[in-house]
Amino acid sequence: MRLNKVTISLLVFIISFSCEDLYNQGNEISEITANVDSVKAGLVVYLKCLATDQNNDELSYNWQCSSGTLETFGDSAIWTAPLFEGVYFITCTVSDKYGASSVESKKITVTPSSVVPVNGLEWELSDEGLVAGSNTSNPNNTGVLSFWDGNVENTDYGWNITDQMEGDDWLSQSLQFRVEDSQNCDGENPNTQMGTATANIQIEGDSPVTLDIEFSGYGEAQSAGYDLIKFSLNGEVIGDGQAPGGGLGCESAPVTVNPSEPKALEPGPHTLVIEFTTNDGQYHVDAYYEIRVMLIAP
Fold first, then answer.
1. CB neighbours of 104 closer than 8 A, spacing ≥ 6?
2. Is residue 275 part of a domain?
């Protein structure tokens, strides 16, 4: 029996497709990541599905949720949480063109909505030059391992941070950077000590939110120009402080403060950075800065 060219081409295609399908090794989702595990009602969560295919086949992504709304971008998605608190699951199904698929879900807890329409008042904290604190140079950049209770006597060295508090029209959080005593003041630390706290703040809705920062502390009473703190909003310095000086040696006294005026945060993203440095390794004793960051609804 003679086969024409069309028949031969068709047979080659069927055999080729069947072999590829037969030896297809499938795909696997390693993780669905989210920028937060808990979000206030009505705010957004950014998700990404991390998947691999053993044959390096091109993958397609199908996102689903039982409540809220999804905007999808292939392996990424933005989920807007529903207006009701609870536990919700966002599911991603990954498939290749040969029919292999895998499914994973990400659990997100939705809490009651805040009177302040803000998403992202969460801090990334880092420090350098400390030698004693249990939260020192934490590899996860989380600062103190549990939330600080706000009392000065209960702080650790380096960063301490409280849980968020809410009022009728405001949301606030307090931070403290506590300095280790220097070697020349009977301490153990010979280093310049530094810390940075960064918050990426997303203002939702249509109206601006007021940012109000208050800070105080104790710095070295030997020389001014040390125990420096600086506050920057969207790259612009909005406040700072320094040690009072006075030539008193190993003593501390209230810092000199150049306060920040309240700032209007328009809807959209904003970055607040707090930077601290002792600026040298000497004359540090009982020194710290305490900062309260407040967001006030319109």
1. 29, 31, 32, 49, 91, 92
2. yes
- Closest listed residue to residue 106, CA positions, set 204, 181, 193, 31: 31
In a domain, 3, yes or no: no
Cβ neighbour number for residue 178 with a 10 Å cutoff:
23
Mean pLDDT over 161-189 rounds to: 90
With contact defined as beta carbons under 8 Å apart, do 245 and 257 qualify?
no
Report CA dihedral (231, 236, 238, 242) to the nearest 10 degrees. 50
Encode 44-70: b = buried (16+ Cβ within 10 Å), e = exposed. Answer: bbebbbebebeeebebebebebeebee
Which strand (E) or helix (H) includes residue 12? helix 5-22
Mean pLDDT of 104-115: 87
For residues 281 and 225, the answer to whether their CB atoms sit within 8 Å is no
CB 28 within 8 A of CB 102: yes
Kindly tell me if the per-residue pLDDT of 14 is higher than 70: no
- Pick the residue with more confidence: 114 or 18? 114
Instruction: Give residue-wise pLDDT tens across range 73-84.
Output: 999 999 999 988
pLDDT per residue over 247-263, tens digit each? 999 999 999 999 999 99
Residue 13 located in a structural domain: no
Residue with tokens 């601006």: 208
Number of independent structural domains in the chain: 2
According to the model, what pLDDT value does residue 298 have?
Answer: 81
Domain span including residue 41? 25-111
- Mean pLDDT for all residues in the chain: 85
The residue among 93, 111, 129 that closes a domain is 111
